[in-house]
Amino acid sequence: MTVITRGVDLVLRVVITTAFAVLVACVVWQVVSRYLLQSPSTVTDEMARFLFIWVALLGGAYTFGRRRHLAIDLLPVITTGRARLLVNGLIIAAVAFFAGIVMVYGGIDLVGRTLETGQVSPALRLPMGLIYVAIPFSGLCILYYCLTFLADLIRTGRGPNDQDGAASIGGPLD
């Protein structure tokens, strides 16, 4: 694993863990304010939704980078040799295509349009473009991981679904 990959993993882990902790605090406060104080907080409700978006997208990118994503690996398992390399290369290309076109290009377009129109969230009054930045940012992370997977495939023959060994018992962020 390269220094850059370790750095990307670390940044994603810190952001995901922090966002998830704040998300849990928001939801707990929402429950307390709604049921104990009889005055629901609209700010924490909206903040929890936005944090969930970020946690889901960044968590997906991180999980992909750690090769722990959900994968249907029927073709790589039943093929060998050059055919397996080709299948794995096509899988990486398909993921990179989706991440590049839909997430990065489409996400940047979405961010630009919402910032241009001045759309803001109702409770927090945040520009919605800042919330949508999670889409192209996650797409860039996935593209980076696709490049590392392609390098691994060329160098060692290891595909995007090949694990380093047995699954760890420490948890998803270890």
Q: Would you summarize the structure shown here?
A:
The complex comprises the extracytoplasmic solute receptor protein and the two transmembrane proteins. This protein is an all-alpha fold.
Largest sheet: none
The best one-word shape is elongated
Mean pLDDT: 90
Low-confidence stretches: none
Structural class: mainly alpha
| Structural domain tally | 1
Taken as a percent bin, the fraction of beta residues is under 5%
Number of strand elements: 0
SSE order, one letter for each helix or strand: HHHHHH
Q: Report how far the terminal alpha carbons are from each other.
A: 15 Å
Protein name: TRAP transporter small permease protein
Function: Part of the tripartite ATP-independent periplasmic (TRAP) transport system.
Domain Tripartite ATP-independent periplasmic transporters DctQ component: 23-155
Organism: Roseibium aggregatum
Q: Can you put this structure into words, describing what you see?
A:
Helices cover 74% and strands 0% of the residues. The two termini are 15 Å apart. It has 174 residues and is an all-alpha fold. The protein has one domain (3-156). The model has no long low-confidence stretch (mean pLDDT 90).
